[in-house]
Amino acid sequence: MSDTKRTEMVEPTATSAVSADTTETLRDEPRGRTGLGRILLGRDAIMIYLLIATIVIAMISIPRFASPVTVGFLLLDVIPVLLIAMPMTLIIITGEIDLSVASIAGLTSALIGVLWQAGLDIGVVLVLGVVIGVAAGAMNGFLVAVVGLPSLAVTIGTLALFRGLALVVIGDNAVANFPPELTAFFTSKLGATGIPTVMIGVLLIIVVFGVLLHFTPFGRGLYALGFSKEAARFVGIHVARSKFWLYVASGGVSALAGIYWTLRYSSARSDNASGLELAVIAAVLLGGVSIFGGKGSIPGVVAGVLLIGTINYALRLGRVSDVVLIIVTGTLLIASVVAPSIVDAVKRRSHDRRVRRELPEPVGSGSVSA
Amino acid sequence: MELFRNRTGRVARTRRIATVAATAATIALIATGCAGGGDTGDSGSGAGADGDQSITFIPKQLNNPYTDVVLGGGEEGAEAAGFATSQVVGPLDASASSQVSFINAETQAGTNVIVIAANDPDAVCPALEEARTGGAKIVAFDSDTNPDCRDVFISQVVAKEVALIQVELIAEQIGGAGEIAILSATANATNQNEWIKFIEEELDSNPDYADIELVAKVYGDDDDTKSFQEAQGLLQAYPNLKGIISPTTVGIAATARYLSTSEYKGTVALTGLGLPNEMRPFVKDGTVTEFALWDPAQLGYVAAFAGKALADGDISGEVGETFEAGDLGEREIGEGGVVIVGPPTVFNADNIDDYDF
User: Could you read off the pLDDT of B142-163 as tens digits, one per residue?
Assistant: First the structure.
């Protein structure tokens, strides 16, 4: 679907020069893919096929991969990335970025550790954790949307700032004595399926963001925003307000990821989730979101996150060194970014050839070639 | 112009269909091979019979020179003890939770013995518990986990001894008076923090060290560049600094490198825990007089034998039990399930050439 959109964007400029010379009527009504074909052959679908293929290959070639245990461990590993990838998708679609997500998770982790140690009720502690995340997100949102600073600069700053605050809050300490029932709940599985119980909540968040992006005017507006901020403003989209709330959502979800991280590893520390922002952005881009904005979808991103997670888990289970592992994921990311531009280049070349063939030849050479 | 789009659209569609077809074909091929593949997978999980045991070492991080020596000893020990397979897996960064997914993978692989140097004593616990439920024996080495989630802990030396020898060395080198600083690994490192605690206690309580003042503790995160910069920062911030203790091999090597190229060479003392091979040039050029360490290879070696004894059921991790550690002879499990490998060695210009690790 996004491909079609891009073609439409590009076409008018290419046309105007050519159309004057063409007198022929249309042989075939041009159209994008519709219906089933559009769903089954889109970028998202290809990501899902890739994911399925990877899983099947891993099931065959890696001993013991095919078991419910895998499902549990794998999902537990990817949940933080999966969570943060949701708001990150929306933010990147608008053409912005949020690099401070992992630091917000770290700050939340540090804060709930300290508050719990101070003897507050665990419920209050968790709520305050989310509140600090939302506040941190609101700060990003204010600087980006209201003040109008570039998001890259703002969030690089807050990346350091929030991590620093985490260190101020908890220092060198680690808090580990969370209620055992709670930490056990975060690693518990749904019966024999191996699916972690917390996946229910994660799924809910995915659905919320999916509906928000794909089925609401707000979500449609984000794509417009990503293509052209000015155009989006002219058609009546509240640019600043949309961005602000996206950063607030990003902060809130990052805080949830921080809480999950803390309770899953039952360890609240200042360096929790450090470097996670890059894993999230890598997965989002692999999932087909354009770093320039305007393109991408939630199903694609979910598949992207799971694809990276599966490859990591399978290679680890196959005892492939982490050195190889980061090379593999890095190459995959480059390939996922390069592949569409290669396809575009091929398209453009065949388009150019076509132009040269179809257009009436210049007078001088034309008489000879006939 | 619409013609062109039509044409390119068709090309794109053909390509897309081709991609899908290829993927589908791959899946189909794989699916047909699935039945056969499943069997091979299962037959491997029956490991556990004597002579078919597996051991996996999970260090704090890969590509750390000290860890490499420990693991070298571990692999040697694993072979000598009679393990069928030994593996080394681990994260690239020494962060708290990075080891968990490796433990999970080992649990799933049905490994008999997991030997781990914990980056965080608590973060690895739930995963280790799960591994134990699956039948694995857990040996902590180098850096302990929470005692509840391992069977034995192989400690290089008594923590207090390591701390005391470093205080002794620095006191001697700065003439018993002046400002000193500590350049450690990460702020949460279990063993470094324990040594630092003993160092501080000793400085406070021992009248011989009354004139020595600990002015700063900084953390190089066991990262060469960061440690180098921290060393540089220390000397700038404390112009009267007489000596630095760096109880980590990465830290001491980076600090020595900085000192050797700076005006402080020979005037600011440096000691701590270092690898002879890394420290040799700095001892020879006078940057460092004396430093200490145990033989890290022995640590891995003893850990492998402890793992074997646990897997065979010869020991259960109770105080007073003993096991044979190959060439190193008998070792006894002490208070808290701790096994001590041996006393630290002090290296200086006279003996450093006798060691190769």
Answer: 888 999 999 999 987 788 888 9
Q: Give the nearest chain B residue to A51 (CA atoms).
A: B23
Q: How far, CA to CA in Å, does A49 sit from each of A4, A79, B20?
A: 21, 21, 8
Q: Where in the sequence is the domain holding A283, given as residue range(s)?
A: 49-350
Residue B348: left (phi > 0), alpha (psi -120 to 50), or beta?
A: beta
Complex ipTM more than 0.85, yes or no? no
Give the pLDDT score at A5: 45
* Residues in CB range of A58: below 8 A, 6 or more apart: A65, A310, A314
A347 or B166: which leads in pLDDT: B166
Percent of all residues in chain B with a pLDDT value above 70, rounded to a whole number: 86
B35: contact with A, CB 8 A cutoff: no
Find where tokens 């024999």 sit.
Answer: A192
What is the full DSSP assignment across A5-40? HHHHHHHHHHHHHHHTT--PPPSS------HHHHHH
Nearest CA in chain B to A52: B27
User: Is A168 near chain B, with CB under 8 Å?
Assistant: no
DSSP per-residue letters across B86-104:
EEE---SS--TTTTHHHHH
pLDDT band at residue A131 using 50, 70 and 90 as cut-offs: very high
Q: How many residues are listed for chain B in this entry?
A: 357
Instruction: For chain A, positions 251-280, list CB contacts with chain B under 8 A.
Output: 261, 264-267, 269-272, 274-275
Residue A370 lies in a domain: no
Distance from A271 to chain B by nearest Cα, in Å? 7
pLDDT above 90: percentage of residues in chain A = 53
Asked if B8 reaches chain A (Cβ–Cβ under 8 Å), the answer is: yes
- Could you tell me if residue A368 is inside a domain? no
Residue B217 contacts A, CB cutoff 8 Å: no
First to last CA, chain B: 73
A99 falls within a domain: yes
User: pLDDT band at residue A208, thresholds of 50, 70 and 90?
Assistant: very high
Which residue shows structure tokens 């794989």? B30
- Report yes or no: A352 at the B interface, CB cutoff 8 Å: no
> Is B101–A313 a contact, with Cβ atoms under 8 angstroms apart?
yes
In chain A, what residues touch B44 (CB-CB under 8 Å)?
A: 63-64
* Structural domain includes residue A10: no
Pairing mode of beta strands B330-332, B322-324: antiparallel
Alpha helix positions (H), B215-342 = 224-237, 249-260, 276-284, 296-312
To the nearest whole Å, the CA of B9 is away from the closest chain A CA by 8
Q: Residue B6: which of A28, A187, A269 has the nearest Cβ?
A: A28
Q: How far apart are CA B287 and CA B274, in angstroms?
A: 13
Q: Which domains does chain B have, with CATH numbers?
A: 54-156+296-341 (3.40.50.2300), 159-293 (3.40.50.2300)
Total structural domains in chain A? 1
As a whole number of angstroms, the distance between CA A175 and CA A183 comes to: 13
Chain B contact set for A70 (CB, 8 A): 108
CB of B100 within 8 Å of a chain A CB? The answer is yes
Chain B residues close to A109, C-beta within 8 Å: none
The reply to whether residue A64 touches residue B45, judged by beta carbons under 8 angstroms, is yes
User: Collapsing DSSP states into helix, strand and coil, what is residue A359?
Assistant: coil
Residue from B121, B189, B113 nearest B151 by CA: B113
If DSSP codes are grouped into helix, strand and coil, which group holds residue B347? strand
* CATH code of the domain in which A83 resides: 1.10.3470
**Residue B102 near residue B58 (C-beta atoms within 8 A):** yes
Determine whether the interchain pair B9/A30 forms a contact, defined as Cβ–Cβ distance below 8 Å: yes
| pLDDT in the model for residue B292 | 92
Quote the CA–CA distance of B145 and B288 in Å, as a whole number: 33
